[in-house]
Amino acid sequence: MTKLFWLSAVAFLAAGALNAQNVAGDWLGAIKAGPAELNIALHITKAADGSLKATMDSIDQGAKGFPVDSITLAGTKLNFAVNVVQGSFEGTLNPAATLITGTWSQGPGGIPLELHRGVYTPKADPKPAKPSDIDGDWHGSINSGQGELEIVFHIINTEEGLIAKADVPAQGATGIPVTKVTRTGSALTLEMRQLGGGFDGTISKDLKLIDGTWSQMGNKIPLVLKR
């Protein structure tokens, strides 16, 4: 009986060790910093020699294929770095190889980050409806402190109400989803939870501009959108 138990335990430990090395695949997680929440996808592949390679997507920013410059798995400890965003991650893979729990670092301090196996499936946009009087493309520039940063909002009326997406051409980001669009008379709010902020403005009577403020992480910057 003792021998049988010991053999079963060895088999269990061996299976656990095998799973621990099986980190290849697709992983999803959300980086949360204050009011901001940024969903990411990590794609890991394993070469014949056992080395790992990976890319990362910033789902809510519409950015795909950020190169992961280095990635290693030592036992259950996973580490990777994404130099283009000056970010890095240190985490632990669970025995079933279904969850990685760790810390994302980008600048001073760190943010808890859990990655679970999964493939991101974008939600289909609602069916278009009769265009509203503000449907279309709206352009503006934000003074980032290091120069003007262009942002473009695409507003569309649908059967479920107004929706919008945003582009930041200088950063190569397109189709960033606006979390929520709220319009009350001439007041318009574009909430972008993934950025921890958004836009509040007033639509002009001639429908040619929306004069307002861009807010992000406690900072407020004037922003005027024009068709």
Q: Quickly name the level 1 CATH class of the largest domain.
A: Mainly Beta
Estimated radius of gyration: 23 Å
Q: How many strands appear in the DSSP assignment?
A: 18
Major sheet size, sense and barrel closure: 9 strands, antiparallel
**CATH topology descriptor of the largest domain:** Lipocalin
Name the poorly predicted regions: 1-20
Helical/strand content category:
mainly beta
The averaged pLDDT comes out at 87
CATH structural architecture of the largest domain: Beta Barrel
How helix-rich are the residues, as a percent range?
under 10%
Q: State the fourth-level CATH superfamily of the largest domain.
A: Quinohemoprotein amine dehydrogenase alpha subunit, domain 2
Query: Separation of termini?
Result: 79 Å
The global form is: elongated
Order of helices and strands: HEEEEEEEEEEEEEEEEEE
Give the strand order, joined by hyphens, for the main sheet: 4-3-2-1-9-8-7-6-5
Question: What is the count of DSSP helices, taking H or I runs of 4+ residues?
Answer: 1
Portion in beta strands? over 45%
Number of domains: 2
